[in-house]
Amino acid sequence: MNTDRMPVVFAGHGSPMNAIGDNRARQGWRAVGEHIVENYGKPSAILAVSAHWQARGSFHVHTDVVNPQIMDMWGFPEELYQVHYQPDGDNELARRVLGLLGDRATADNEWGIDHGVWSVLATMFPEADVPVVPMSVDMAASADDHYRVGADLRALRDEGVLVFASGNVVHNLMMVDWDSDAGADWADRFDKDIHDAIAASDFGKVVHYEELPDARLAVPTTDHFLPLLVALGAVQVGDTIATFNDYRELGSMSMTSYIFG
């Protein structure tokens, strides 16, 4: 662990309902937030890559100091819509990200902090006193492109910035079982294959996840998997690798999350 360098976090966010009540997801998010503050100090800012901001043709970066909270979910209990989380943005960090990514990135203030970000950060850093810069995935870019973008963002970690990515290793909405608090066999297998590759620092196997058995079921669309690749790209040689929230839910959703530092 290098406590002079901020870690990288990939969080499986799962159902928006994980943002309220006392549940396994929030217990893990709270513990990781406390671990970061205790061992690295509070981040100067957070670069938040969300599966729910899906651009096409470039990586979009929110540059405004005002971060609208996006309630991008429908049909849930009113209690969920009462969660308020709206930390400031950070124009200086946003411009730094745009500079690091060059013509692969675009300034865009039409979005904000969606539930892939606020559902997790509201528990990790509940005071909302750490500025957040949202960044999209690029649905026209390859898995390798997302990994390379993460690598180009590594330098931010030495500048006090927490690189935070939110998605799900397994995410198949067509096969959700709302009565299940575990994973289907295929979901468990794919999640374990990815976990074992990450634990062995075999990130190339993760980037080429489509070669794994069960990949078509586990990753029917790439939006929730791509943030993991950005996170892996930002990992440095010598970083420790730890897993948290290692479980599946709703049959087809993996909550498995990682911290690298």
Written overview of the protein:
The chain is an alpha/beta fold and 261 residues long. 32% of the residues lie in helices and 18% in strands. It is built from nine helices and ten strands. The protein has helices at residues 24-40, 78-81, 91-101, 115-124, 143-152, 185-199, 203-207, 215-218, 226-233, and strands spanning 8-12, 45-55, 59-61, 105-107, 132-138, 161-167, 241-244, 248-249, 253-254, 257-260. Strand 8 (248-249) and strand 9 form a beta hairpin. The radius of gyration is 17 Å and the shape is globular. The mean pLDDT is 96.
Distance N to C terminus = 5 Å
What is the overall pLDDT average? 96
For the biggest sheet, the summary is: 6 strands, mixed
Tally of individual helices: 9
The total beta strand count reads 10
Poorly predicted tracts of residues: none
Shape: globular
Work out the helicity level: 25-40%
Q: Please write the string of helix (H) and strand (E) elements.
A: EHEEHHEHEHEHHHHEEEE
List keywords for this structure.
32% helix; 261 residues; globular
Helix/strand layout:
Blueprint: E1 8-12, H1 24-40, E2 45-55, E3 59-61, H2 78-81, H3 91-101, E4 105-107, H4 115-124, E5 132-138, H5 143-152, E6 161-167, H6 185-199, H7 203-207, H8 215-218, H9 226-233, E7 241-244, E8 248-249, E9 253-254, E10 257-260
Parallel strand pairs: 1-6, 2-5, 2-6, 3-4
Antiparallel strand pairs: 1-10, 7-10, 8-9
Helix pairs in contact: 1-4, 5-9
In short:
This protein is of the alpha/beta class and 261 residues long. It has nine helices and ten strands. The mean pLDDT is 96.
